[in-house]
Amino acid sequence: MALSVMASSPLRAATRVALPASVTGQTLDGALVGSSPFAGAPAVDMLSGDLLFRAAFSGGPAPQALLRMPTGAAAPGILVAAGDEAAPGLAFDSFLAPSGCAGQVTFWSGLAAIPPATAVGSGIFILDQGQVVPVAMVGGTAPGGGTYLALGSDPRVDISGRLIYLATTSDSPDDLILFRRAKDGTTAPILTAGDMAADGSPVTELLNSDLSCTGTLLVLATLETTDGPRQTLLRDTGTAWQPQLMQGDSLPDGTTVTALRLPAAVTADGSIHLVIDRDTVPAPALVTVDDSGNRIMLAAAGDSSGSGGTLADFGPPTPLSADQVAWRSRLNDGSLPAGASPYVVLAAGPAAPATVLVAPGNASPGGGALMDLGDPVGRGNGTLHLVAGTAGEVTGEGLLTWTTSAAWSARAGQLVPGWGRLLGGGFRTARPALDTAGQAAFIATFSPGDGGKALYLAAAGALPRRLLSPGDILSGGELLAGLAGPATPSAAGVVWVAADVTAAGERIGYVRATDGTGATLELAEGDPSPQGGQFRTLGRLPAAGADDRLLFTATLSGAGSSAGIFTLDPGLMPATVTTAGAPAPDGGDFTSFGFAPAMAGTRAAFMAFTGGSRSGSGIFAADLTTTPPVLIALARSGDAAPGGGTLLSFRDPTGGEDGTVAFLASLEEGGSVILVHGTGGLQRLLATGDSLPAGETVTAITALSPDDTGTIYASVLATAAAPVAMVLALDGATTQIVLGSGGTVPLGGGELAVLQNFPALGAGGTRTLVMSAELQGWSSGAAVIYAAEDSDGDGWGDPLDCALADASAWAVPPAVKDLQIQPAAATAASLTWNALTLAAGPGTTHEILSGSIADLQQAGGPAGATCAASGIGGGTGSVVDGKPDTGTARWYMVRGRNACGVGFLAASGQPRSVSETVCAAH
Description:
Structural class: mainly beta
Number of helices: 3
Distance between the termini: 61 Å
Radius of gyration: 32 Å
């Protein structure tokens, strides 16, 4: 459908709620912490250039995930995350480095029961056209006989869709077997002990394998030759396994090969480049075997680096150009900065001597200096990607992209849309949410003091109030060990959260925290379920309704069903919505459920998988006003999508107070679409590829949130001249850009760089959003921000502004800070303080109150204050009260005044007992 813009509607104003201590000086009970998010070297798709890596998160729906950074993208996206369904009854638990080619990604993963519990095995998977396909799992049947016992951690896929991996089976427990999966899904063993190489030597042992994106398959194996066992690099020619290089072969420098290492690099000229060991000290070298079988030494341990020091050990090579490779090497006796790792990145080719490309001490993009360099990856187009660490004015870790200079492609602390923050950036937050009073509830990680993640509640511009933190004792005597899920407010000052609690052993429970009155454990794993038996695991992403009812997923033990969706009212027993094994509307039976159900007024909405007569997935809704709840299907896989296409899979839904259910669906034809179900049935709002009012094209839709009027807010990534993140308001056929990266943020300045997804909507038609954002500029960092209608254009949304028609004021002035007094003359004094104009508005003036210490002590407060000065716009004033008599003293206090009212005198926020009329006539 066509999209139009509401040109008369201005962009909403962003108001900062909480900032890192490094920006505002607020410590929130401790100092900021961070840790390394990146694990292992990245990978790069040789054809598309997409960067693939695994990373750890805080504050999102999963602790770690595999990510893809498309060429030219501003932020990475999630491919698959811990907790996602890997196979019926199993979820991904952990990952090793991915590999990709032509948009296909293959990876090794540890597996756990759904919801994630104790790891139960591992598997190899391929992600193709957005679908995760299991290739092999420990315990599964292996082609050729037996079951898989162990799986190699480096599966590879090429341009033709051919996938290879090593494994042991119950029929061959002591020998690795090389398996190949064709594009059509058929899998067969292609090399095992006893098979013959092209020279007639039998294979006695497989050691490693490597498959380039362009289709070159290499295997490192031991052959039984006429000279005895020899380690050999074999190349698959399609008809035979041709030896390329052997242990004992001679090299151009007169040494011989003693060992070979994979992975190798295959460049566009057909050459194979790999690291070998030699019968000399120092041993390692990087050699090339060209198409004619010639052996060329590119670099060897002991060579000069050309910039001080000599080369020592070598990392695996990667293509840099058609005939050159790059690699990481340690330097001996190099002149590197103190504290830096001794590794540099070099490049070389048959006609190009080894040259240092990147070294510790080089300037880091954005400030600081590079100190630690990981193994690079490239695809032969002159670009390299590597993990790097920095020190100096900017510290941290990230994925560095190098061509002729360096730039960051992903950094510790970066917000990944919809998935939280890459660990290591200091201030970290789960997706925030708004309560009915417009306060933001969010989880942030600080130390010391909190011992980990703590739950906070804050109004715009105010210092957050801590509701829960590790070590708190709950009302029933349980110890709160940690927070396991994002905040879910149900009313003003009432927040639900999934937490780790310790009583008779650590377990997950649902805690209901109230502002100022404590917290109660309402339900925990091991408690009785309404289906009989006990709740075995509780979902980490429950939803709360305006009536304080909680909706959640759970698995069961000792009951008639394995899993279900349930509701919980405070102080009452949980009730069942539906369970696995129950019939699904429109056919089939429920088999499992998504992790994040949604409350939509009096309806419960959820994603579920089905089996039986109709297998697949769908979005379903349950009417909670009936007993038992009446279920309907909103959308099923295989259905025709409104506006065209066929529905393939779904993301967990979100709900509005008016009963609207919105969700994101992927299409068999490619791309994704926002669908909404309300009184008018199922409608299409926006899809990838659609155009936006300013000419941008939607490239990804990552989160949704309906308000109580039927408008859907969507976080999207779009491209025009440059990638941009934005939040859209979708109302029927109208699209309005609410907030976009590049918009300014008050209270400290800076621009929005990345908008974290899952914007949350306020209640009562306020149409106020709250979300996490990455800032850039002089106040760079992360913040929790509001976005709301701003009638007077002062940067404060209407629900948070006390003077809607006055742009000079938006809040009652708080207490001044850092008040100091200095004598200026015998009868005069000069006072300085932190001006309140940034906190309360540019129209805020300051007034100085004064009195004698004797009167202050006698009255027990400043009730008898007089006005010493007023109407002061900045943070400096002077008083002429006369010199106090010997043995006496005078006191001074400063407060603010603007259109919203008279400010506070005390930091506690109490006005004391000073009349507002003092200084009013001055």
